[in-house]
Amino acid sequence: xxxxxxxxxxxxxxxxxxxxxxxxxxxxxxxxxxxxxxxxxxxxxxxxxxxxxxxxxxxxxxxxxxxxxxxxxxxxxxxxxxxxxxxxxxxxxxxxxxxxxxxxxxxxxxxxxxxxxxxxxxxxxxxxxxxxxxxxxxxxxxxxxxxxxxxxxxxxxxxxxxxxxxxxxxxxxxxxxxxxxxxxxxxxxxxxxxxxxxxxxxxxxxxxxxxxxxxxxxxxxxxxxxxxxxxxxxxxxxxxxxxxxxxxxxxxxxxxxxxxxxxxxxxxxxxxxxxxxxxxxxxxxxxxxxxxxxxxxxxxxxxxxxxxxxxxxxxxxxxxxxxxxxxxxxxxxxxxxxxxxxxxxxxxxxxxxxxxxxxxxxxxxxxxxxxxxxxxxxxxxxxxxxxxxxxxxxxxxxxxxxxxxxxxxxxxxxxxxxxxxxxxxxxxxxxxxxxxxxxxxxxxxxxxxxxxx
Length: 453
Description:
By secondary structure, this protein is mainly alpha-helical. It has helices at 19-25, 49-68, 80-91, 104-119, 149-158, 198-203, 208-229, 242-246, 252-262, 269-291, 314-322, 328-340, 345-358, 363-373, 381-390, 405-412, 417-422, 435-452; strands at residues 5-9, 31-37, 73-77, 95-99, 123-127. The protein is 49% helix and 6% strand. It is globular, with a radius of gyration of 23 Å. 46% of the residues are buried. InterPro entries: Crypto/Photolyase_FAD-like_sf, Crypto/Photolyase_N_sf, Cryptochr/Photolyase_FAD-bd, Cryptochrome/DNA_photolyase_1, DNA_photolyase_1_CS_C, DNA_photolyase_N, Rossmann-like_a/b/a_fold. Residues 3-132 form the Photolyase/cryptochrome alpha/beta domain.
């Protein structure tokens, strides 16, 4: 009897451009897909509530698509170091394939598993699939990681171009006996008491087919407006692909390739260039995490360890979380986030600046809130962008650059469409802090940090 191959799915919940799945399919042996919900291994960060909602539905879609092609998806829960070898023994698998991860804890888990399984005579191979450029391939002339985006992205564009995306397997050989699987519903990923996910259900349809459709819609209908209107939260000019990339329902290679194809006529060249640079920013975040695994907990700039964050005022944090600060654009963004699990990128910068600089609340509290409420929060981009906003991260905006949320609204929401949709009552509220006074307090704190160095 032929020995099956296991394909360990992680943040790559798709069939198209999936190198690990392609390698298994090319063996002409039975293929068993497996997803492990590992919330117990050291250093692995538990998913937030919005992420768990998305994961449930994306796994259901992946399971159905694998079944349609003749294979199966096995769900198991526990430490990967225990569960995966046990499943190999249970199925008699002769090979295990996965696409690489880049977080510090995940890399340790994968390296140990690869060594242990190979010692037992199992073929193990890993592949690059979730980044356009592997983190060890892009370095400065001195051999160090880049700390500024513009030279980083230029270096990326100077190395060999990203590979072409791989086609999805049309058929897969399934095992003669299907291994036992946890029931997805038993994992409790969906909120029930209360069920707060109504807005997420209205906004999103997780899964690879919907992701492919959204990419096509964006390239056909919205790419031309991207460069001009991407900063306007009411314009609807953004791609809405961030959760698709976070969960790997689309690969960056697919997005890259199809964007270049769509811009091939030259009509949308400027917008395509701008959009692909946003993929570059995503790459920069992941490369930074690869070289600095403590990105979610430690200041990338060590000087910020001396920043004098004042004692937390819980009422200010709650007002920010609930969109009740009395600052219209901030409140609109936070209410959009709570309702839909998403926030426009321009508004993310405004809300993050307000928390860290006007309220003087440590960026880690904001990062944790976004981790719990965003459907697209991942281990690199979420802390990377929060550190950028706070001034403590790579290529960060200077600390003294403090977004004025009123001016941001005047510039990017001049007709009040965005605020009117999400926080029509906000202007009636008294702001919880004075913007000018709180800006001065932030600059004073920054000066104190510099003196403490």
